[in-house]
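Input chain follows. Return structure tokens only.
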Amino acid sequence: MPLLEPKPQALRPKAKRSPAPDRVPELHARGTPRQLCEELTEILGPEKVLSKISDLVRYASDASPYRFVPQVVVVAEDIDDISTILSYAHGKGREVVFRAAGTSLNGQAQGEDVLVDVRRHWAGVEVLDGGARARIRPGTTVVRANAALAPYGRVLGPDPASAVACTIGGVVANNASGMTAGTTRNSYRTVSSLTFVLPSGTVVDTGAPDADEELARAEPRLCAELLALKAEIEADAELTARIRAKHTIKNTNGYRLDAFLDGATPAEILRGLMVGSEGTFGFISEVVFDTLPLDREVSTGLLFFPSLPAAAEAVPLFNEAGALAVELMDGNTLRASVSVAGVPADWAGLPKETAALLVEFRAPDPAALDAYERAAGTVLDGLDLVAPVASVENAFTRDPKRISGYWKARKAFVTAVGGSRPSGTTLITEDFAVPPGRLAEACASLLDLQSRHGFDAAVAGHAAHGNLHFLLAFDAADPSDVERYAAFMDEFCKLTVERFDGSLKAEHATGRNIAPFLELEWGTRATELMWRVKEALDPGGVLAPRIVLDRDPQAHLRGLKTIPSVEPIADPCIECGFCEPTCPSHDLTTTPRQRIVLRREMMRQAHGSPVEARLLESYGYDAVDTCAGDSTCKLACPVGIDTGALMKEFRHERHSPREERIAALAARNFRAVEASARLAVAAADRIGDRVLESATGLARRVVRPDLVPEWLPEIPGAAARRLPRTHRPAAVAVYYPACVNRIFGGPDGHTGPSLPEAVVAVSARAGKPVWIPDDVAGTCCATIWHSKGYARGNEVMANRIVEAAWGWTAGGRLPLVVDASSCTLGIAHEVVPYLTDDNRELHGELTVVDSLVWAADELLPRLEVRRRVASAVVHPTCSMRHLGDEDRLTALAGACAEEVVVPADAGCCAFAGDRGMLHPELTASATAREAAEVTSRPFDAHLSANRMCEIGMDRATGRSYRSVLLALERATRP
């Protein structure tokens, strides 16, 4: 063990707790049973079998109110792995559940035996027929698929609110639809063909010309049973009419029996049955979608009404006017959404009874949109709208930023409302549909029902399609509260079915919480047919038992998860998973959601339990060390949960007093540290990479990997000892070269000016001269200490840089231009909590400008571009995302290159200062997909705006990245 390895107990929760009823039993502390682990390892390999208790716990939760801990997690890489797992399960009598994004709201992504991760190795999009179709792998997010289609002017039909996180496999398996899909643009209507693996291991490609011949050869019994069921259904006129009627409104409850009416052959029937089957019929390995036109002309209005029924009554009017989307939000939803960035703060003062409609028209050209707006205006003239707070406008807009803000508030419904629930309560998301003409009546009935059962629920939905969602919060650890929820569900289901003939699941699929009510909606005849279909396809009952079909009338009350309170920054988390795709470590160790899930399990455990001890043993590396600390999870989370900040706090808690003193000493003496670092980098050029790699490798093993960086061949040589000479009197801005650019030089092979020289030259060239203070040495943005959780060192440097910057800028009269995006973020925002009161006032007078903004907004309009390269690929950093200046990177690159490419899979490189040197495996994992895109073709330039990120991308791609300001200087050089 390394000498300075931190003690796991330092991360033990300090809050008081009592063992929760749903805690993981102590007998599971060692994780997967040995025999099961050994058998799967033998047939799949050790790297594909996750067996630690921390692995099982982090996969036990999805976005639903349920929690089931699997016996083992398997990471499948290809169809051969899937077939092997299914064969093993048949032979051993085991059960299998497939999990991709885990954004399911009804427990579909949870299993109690073998859970198979089908996200990590299953991403990819192939655009076909000029965009008319797309072949998509199941681990691809909807957003990623649409990004590939956008250049062709096409889009997928399904558009769920969780599109940033949910994956195509889950969308198809649940027939998820969303804001605009309704019953005509959903997966069932837009999937052209599927490739899937049946429980028997047979692989079926329904798009193959010989699909039925191959299926008949491999599965003669199944083909015969499917055709017999088809004949039986078609012979029953009453049942046929019932099936057709049930799907005139949105309905994902139960299996798609209309597949027997729509499909003529076994392969065609299976194509329909697999959609919405929730992983109970097989594994979908590939989907070919028929895409839809992407109408780029958009007009959107957010309209406020005095009550929910009043808003619902207006829905048919906008449907008739041609609106593509009509979304409903009640007062609770609107007020809760103030936690979402960009939502007007005065919404918090909206009356409880207020409701709003978000109405959107889309058209292929401006003239068509004009016509839609005229129709919308006629509707508005006849409505009694209200404006309870000043920000309400009750008008349509074409402004993309405002439209994006409206949709951000709407799509945050579950997370924003869930985040504002009382601490310690479990969130239930219900989803039902009624005939659209009865929506107002259904709203009134729902409000009455909630009131009688003591729930103050939030309501929103796809009103254009009669589809409503509502959220309930209750204490799953309190039996009386569970009984209250159960009584509500019984009455709600009867109300929906018996009064409105509605569907109990419109788009979230049956799942665990509606399975007991399936027969109530469909009746005995149709329900028994569904059981027979399941028996035909999965006679061994291997796949996802109890997720769609369950004869236990109390099944929806089994496995409800408690939500113990954790650290305040993470406590609002509802485990939705929106944060996961953006997390750099999501393919290596844990995600932000999983870091919180593990923390909650510690709180469920008795103090010092064997399970807690095992979780703590893994948490240091899996959660804390391999967090890049980039906080892009905060941007992805609709309520801004910053798990990166929590991990930095945990790093602080692991530090000994001695480590904190050393870090503070380094901050106080940073001038010497900086000079020493520059000398060390210069000496490295003479020593050689191989010797340094061996020396740092030994030191890492002896001391601690998280303290000693690994020497990487991509680390550049030293920067010049002296910065360019500048003159203060003529300067219009103060230029602050970041310490990283004062220590490290430019990329290997770069023969032009250094970055500081380039910034000075190009600023002067544009008539905007800058001044570099003589005393910048020894100052820093404080990110070095902030990212590692060294509180005292952070305070020392944060206050020093603000005091210095205030003096350099003449009390804030000149802007401070910073040449590394992470340092700009640090000085502009991250230092603030660590400042003294006096320095916080000084900070408020500063104008901190990222060099990208300075160059794009102030310099570029005054420069003449004299030469351009043919192509450039850019790497937007996570700090640019926080600062909101990614567009400046592409603008500057566009001045330097004829073609600019932003990789669709661009994300945080996870180099994070020196974290990519402490844990090179983190950067390798985080950059894998972006690097594959970058290296798939040649580019003349590889551009970014942060030296350490450039080093990380050098290592990931083998290409030489440099600052876009170096490229700008070259492009405008006389």
